């Protein structure tokens, strides 16, 4: 069966978690998924390109294997690096050019054209940097409306909601639970529950696939032995 029909393939509405030790490549995986999502399926040289870059060949076409979709990216640990993502996109585009066009020098896009492809694609990634649990939760609640308005104005759908280091607020939330910094007892006692419910609502209203990263040193086979109150929740679809 094709990948789209396989039970092992990623489906809209799925929730996926990458976890492991720090500097284990989790964020790099997110960047790669993001760049192949926001890049267009293909690139065609237009007459506007010709005027801008003084190029005469109008038949250049490159299959980029992108999706031309949007990505919501929550940078909870404050380490999102747009320059790194951009550099990865430029490298990816050069590889696609080399693979697709090979020796056909007349069709190879200029460096300016490649940079233009990457910069236009970056408009489809929307980065949020909440620095408090309440800000994170409030943004999640407003996200379906934000996404709907963008889809109507920009004419592209969102494929992924990425949350880098979803456990960032774990100890902060735990402090709130133990010392009662937040006066609202309902929030204090159920903050994790609210995160989960907000993510479920986003999935139901938008159909996005949620991908999270989580810092962990516990091997996968030991997860079942961890008390549930010590685990950050993973939303079940």
TrEMBL record:
Q: Which lineage?
A: Eukaryota, Fungi, Fungi incertae sedis, Mucoromycota, Glomeromycotina
Query: What's in the GO CC field?
Result: microtubule organizing center; Rad51B-Rad51C-Rad51D-XRCC2 complex; replication fork
- Which molecular function GO terms apply here? four-way junction DNA binding
Protein name, entry field: 17770_t:CDS:1
Question: Biological process (GO) annotations?
Answer: DNA strand invasion; double-strand break repair via homologous recombination
Where on the tree of life does the source sit, at the highest rank? Answer: Eukaryota
PANTHER family assigned: DNA REPAIR PROTEIN XRCC2
């Amino acid at each position: 069966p094709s990948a789209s029909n396989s039970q092992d393939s990623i489906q809209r509405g799925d929730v996926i978690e990458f976890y492991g030790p720090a500097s284990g490549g989790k964020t790099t995986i997110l960047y790669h998924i993001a760049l192949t999502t926001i890049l267009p399926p293909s690139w065609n040289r237009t007459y506007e390109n010709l005027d801008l870059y003084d190029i005469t060949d109008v038949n250049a076409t490159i299959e980029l294997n992108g999706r031309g979709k949007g990505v919501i990216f929550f940078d909870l640990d404050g380490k999102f690096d747009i320059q790194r993502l951009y550099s990865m996109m430029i490298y990816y585009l050069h590889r696609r050019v080399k693979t697709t066009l090979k020796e056909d020098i007349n069709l190879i896009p200029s460096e300016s054209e490649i940079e233009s492809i990457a910069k236009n694609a970056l408009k489809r990634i929307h980065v949020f940097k909440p620095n408090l649990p309440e800000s994170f939760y409030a943004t999640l609640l407003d996200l379906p409306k934000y996404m709907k308005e963008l889809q109507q104005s920009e004419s592209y759908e969102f494929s992924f909601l990425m949350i880098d280091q979803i456990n960032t607020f774990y100890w902060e939330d735990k402090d709130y639970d133990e010392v009662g910094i937040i006066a609202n007892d309902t929030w204090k006692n159920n903050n994790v529950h609210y995160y989960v419910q907000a993510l479920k609502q986003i999935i139901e209203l938008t159909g996005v696939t949620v991908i999270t990263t989580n810092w962990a040193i516990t091997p996968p086979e030991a997860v079942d032995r961890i008390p549930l109150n010590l685990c950050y929740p993973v939303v079940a679809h």
